[in-house]
């Protein structure tokens, strides 16, 4: 029976990965930051099956202690300040967690158990101002946010420890992956939550920024399988995990509304563009310039052929099903909210 240590276990990816590893018979340890009120987040339903360790990515002593307690055979570093918009507001905190935090974790592994296998959650945001389409493992990086820059450090320090200290260290360059467990600050969940509220008449409209940004969207449940597969290989390497399909934010919005029986008609241009409910003429989508990024990433499209060939990884949940799962979940949550307020 293997021991696995997951940082960021209460988040979207951490919860799906914990479920996967528990199904495979692992002893699962999860790192949590100490708070005045314990928040198990997305692992509330399996908290009794996980052994939690209080630690922090900015405190190497606590990470060394976590390695000693868990004696982890596999370490999955999913902890991050992962909201791109916040990284402009908190660039130093983002760097401490997403860059230096990775080094802290690698040093903890090297100090306590250098035979442990390490997974680093890299991101497609490292490609930023893309140098080729689609993006693959050999595509040059050009990050366009403090988040992307910090993650690029984490990516390269992982590669450096692999080559310098012969650690089994892999980076998964994951393109956008969403789910019903996504936080509401992320645009996909912001959309599905708003669509549910508009459908039930408790919100008038949805405000968004750049509607024409293109993203490669998959489901988190598929992507955590790729994380696990990377650490089961004979040699460590880096892999792009993506769908090789790109959709605009506008398409995501249209799909989400369509799934609740609302057809959108677009009117106007630029910041004056609005989305109108075709049936009753109500404005249900508006553009708000405050949601524009200081430096925009216009298109992300990943080529997962290496993961397909070497890992045998394939996604199972297509785009429409992803949106459908998120809409169904948010419709149920909003219904409960309405019921509880009566």
From TrEMBL:
<comment type="function">
    <text>Catalyzes the conversion of GDP-D-mannose to GDP-4-dehydro-6-deoxy-D-mannose.</text>
</comment>
<protein>
    <recommendedName>
        <fullName>GDP-mannose 4,6-dehydratase</fullName>
        <ecNumber>4.2.1.47</ecNumber>
    </recommendedName>
</protein>
<dbReference type="GO" id="GO:0008446">
    <property type="term" value="F:GDP-mannose 4,6-dehydratase activity"/>
</dbReference>
<dbReference type="GO" id="GO:0042351">
    <property type="term" value="P:'de novo' GDP-L-fucose biosynthetic process"/>
</dbReference>
<feature type="domain" description="NAD(P)-binding">
    <location>
        <begin position="5"/>
        <end position="326"/>
    </location>
</feature>
<dbReference type="InterPro" id="IPR036291">
    <property type="entry name" value="NAD(P)-bd_dom_sf"/>
</dbReference>
<comment type="similarity">
    <text>Belongs to the NAD(P)-dependent epimerase/dehydratase family. GDP-mannose 4,6-dehydratase subfamily.</text>
</comment>
<keyword id="KW-0456">Lyase</keyword>
<keyword id="KW-0521">NADP</keyword>
<dbReference type="GO" id="GO:0070401">
    <property type="term" value="F:NADP+ binding"/>
</dbReference>
<dbReference type="InterPro" id="IPR006368">
    <property type="entry name" value="GDP_Man_deHydtase"/>
</dbReference>
<dbReference type="Pfam" id="PF16363">
    <property type="entry name" value="GDP_Man_Dehyd"/>
</dbReference>
<dbReference type="InterPro" id="IPR016040">
    <property type="entry name" value="NAD(P)-bd_dom"/>
</dbReference>
């Amino acid at each position: 029976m293997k021991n696995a240590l997951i940082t960021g276990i209460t988040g979207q990816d951490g919860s799906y990965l914990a479920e996967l590893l528990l199904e495979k018979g692992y002893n699962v340890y999860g790192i949590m930051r100490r708070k005045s009120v314990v928040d198990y987040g997305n692992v509330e339903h399996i908290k009794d099956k996980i052994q939690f360790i209080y630690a922090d990515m900015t405190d190497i002593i606590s990470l060394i202690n976590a390695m000693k307690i868990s004696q982890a055979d596999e370490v999955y570093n999913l902890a991050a300040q992962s909201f791109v918009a916040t990284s402009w507001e908190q660039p130093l905190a983002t760097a401490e967690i997403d860059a230096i935090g990775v080094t802290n974790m690698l040093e903890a592994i090297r100090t306590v158990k250098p035979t442990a296998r390490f997974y680093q959650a890299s991101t497609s945001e490292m490609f930023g101002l893309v140098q080729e389409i689609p993006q693959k493992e050999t595509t040059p990086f050009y990050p366009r946010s403090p988040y992307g820059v910090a993650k690029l450090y984490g990516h390269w320090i992982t590669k450096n420890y692999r080559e310098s200290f012969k650690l089994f260290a892999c980076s998964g360059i994951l393109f956008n992956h969403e789910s019903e467990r996504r936080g509401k600050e992320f645009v996909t969940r912001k959309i599905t939550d708003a669509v549910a509220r508009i459908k039930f008449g408790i919100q008038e409209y949805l405000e968004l920024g750049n509607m024409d940004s293109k993203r490669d969207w998959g489901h988190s449940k598929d992507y955590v399988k790729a994380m696990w597969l990377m650490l089961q290989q004979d040699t460590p390497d880096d892999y792009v995990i993506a769908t090789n399909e790109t959709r605009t934010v506008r398409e995501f919005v249209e799909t989400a509304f369509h799934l609740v029986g609302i057809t959108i008609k677009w009117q106007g241009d630029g910041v004056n563009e609005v989305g109108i409910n075709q049936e009753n003429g109500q404005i249900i989508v508006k553009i708000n310039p405050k949601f524009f990024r200081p430096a925009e990433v216009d298109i992300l499209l990943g080529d997962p052929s290496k993961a397909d060939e070497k890992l045998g990884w394939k996604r199972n949940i297509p785009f429409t099903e992803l949106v459908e799962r998120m809409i169904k979940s948010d419709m149920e949550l909003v219904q409960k909210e309405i019921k509880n307020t009566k």
